Amino acid sequence: MKVLVVGLGSIGQRHVRNLLSHDFVSVIGFDPIQQQLSEIEASPKFTKVLSFDQGIQSNPDCVFICTPADTHVEYASKSLLAGAHLFIEKPLAPDLNGLSELVQL
């Protein structure tokens, strides 16, 4: 299984470590804050990408969205359009903008 983790702050890093503990999972990591990428230890099953588009083009089975809530709907929509399953940290969004469209996807 291939998982894209978007957002590599403390919770994103925790998800990466947990996912990498399973033999059948490979992880792709992206964070818009480049410094976060350098804080993740190298692993043969972990690949860093420099953009969300690069990560989603790798055709992940699932996307973990661990970014600030105001970015969740955008990343979730793009992930669903790419055919990925979702795991979204709470809250889903700071308001109702875009949620109807997300539900339709």
Quick description:
By secondary structure, the chain is of the alpha/beta class. Helices cover 35% and strands 20% of the residues. The chain has a five-stranded parallel beta sheet, with helices on both faces.
SSE topology sketch:
Layout: E1 2-6, H1 10-20, E2 26-30, H2 34-38, E3 46-48, H3 52-56, E4 62-65, H4 72-81, E5 85-88, H5 99-104
Parallel strand pairs: 1-2, 1-4, 2-3, 4-5
Structural write-up:
This protein is α/β, with parallel strands linked by helices and 105 residues long. The chain has helices at residues 10-20, 34-38, 52-56, 72-81, 99-104, and strands spanning 2-6, 26-30, 46-48, 62-65, 85-88. Strands 3-2-1-4-5 form a five-stranded parallel β-sheet, sandwiched between helices. The longest helix has 11 residues, at 10-20. The relative contact order is 0.20. The model has no long low-confidence stretch (mean pLDDT 94).
- What is the radius of gyration? 13 Å
Strand order, largest beta sheet: 3-2-1-4-5
Largest sheet: 5 strands, parallel
Q: How many separate helices?
A: 5
